Amino acid sequence: MDAGLRFKKHMAEAATRGLTAAMCLRRLRMLSPRTARQLFTATVAPAMDYASVVWSHARNERALSWFNRAKKIGARAITGAFRTVATAVMEAEANIQTVCERHAQAGMRMYINIKTVPKTHPLAALKVSASRRYMSPLKKLALAYEGSGTERMETIEAYAVPPWYNRVPLVREADREAAKIAAKNVNDIVIACSASDRGGLVGMGGIVAQRSPGQTDRIVARYSATLGSRDDQNPYTAELETIAMALRCMPDGLQCRELTVLSSSQSSLKAIARPQQQSGQTSIRQIYEHIERLRKGNNRVKMIWVPSRDDDLSMSREAKRQAKKATRAGCTPQSLPYQARSTRLRLALSQLHQQRKLPNNVGNYSKRIDRALPGKHTQALYDICKRREAGVLSHLRTGMAKINSYLNKIGAAESDMCECGCGPETMEHFLFRCTRWEAEREAMRRVGQSMMGNLSFFLGGKSASDGAKWRPNLEAVRATVKFAMATGRLSQEGV
Q: Which domain of life does the UniProt lineage start with (predicted)?
């Protein structure tokens, strides 16, 4: 790799494409915040992230400012905030990812995908050498995520099942009642499968029964097993494994029988019916191998989706009971399972998201009224608003609004005193104490009379007294926005 390759041109071109897309988005007037956010995700972010795994390691503060410019324009298109709002606060209000977070996620996703390639793949034979003089982007990517805990990653082939294999018939009724009827009408050998995710463990369980028309099901076998921790496995892979285990235990001497698998996991059944490059490919391959083995004895295998938590299906309840046995406290797997790609990727992305926070000395007002920033709740706050309402809400939540305390701070007003003469026109004074807007404030009182004066409550923020299960009161937020619009105090054009 050329030592002079600094990727500046790559980053400049990506930032230019993102800025162009963001300016086009900004020109679209009267878009709802939901629509603007979707357009940002679909047009602006991909333009800035194209091939970022190659050049993001060379991104410095100067290059980051190029991307932040486009991102800030996109965030303003979503929220309608003033341009003087800090970039970190604006992207938290718009609920969009930072450039660094998106690039880190892309790198982590690529690294985990590389770890799943088969041993015959050229990338599987690559080793991280001790030399650090001229490193390729791929080597820098490997060094960045070397200790991410992917030693037992599953192997995902180009295909799980050859294209000439017959796919397993899947009966998936759209109506719950029709699905229950279809499950009750099957005969011969019935296999009910279930998975359990509890206490940080993932387990599986099932029962095999002999069913004859007009007779009670005769349970032939029950089974359960602990697969591993929630950091390695998930209910989807557990459901696939419990189906594979049931078919694996079917004897070779079975002749001319009909086997029906009952499962409440639509994702697992769809993966079996249409296998692709996905997690759980090992179990899917085993399922098809045993189906082919059983077909040699003229046996037929089909799968039926059944509604979960249905009291009418006793076999499903018993299968769930067996699965829960495998996730009781103290249960341990007999052997370490493979690490599912989807689970490890979800865990890695979640850890990256948890590291995100507002910088020090930035957004002190926003931190005071909303301790949950940055968080997903801001998306719910803005999605209930129309375009003009979103602009008013962003002004109230960022503290940069057309009230005298802020106007005086930026030199646009001679004094910060309110026209009512009762004190400085702060956000609390405007919303709760100004005597000029008593009639307009009635809707806020109806929503939360006892909460009057609580800025966090009426602006959808989390206060210090709120617990872990806190959720914003959207009705209070809507009443606050309507109050601010009714006063006309914030209706002047932006700063």
A: Eukaryota
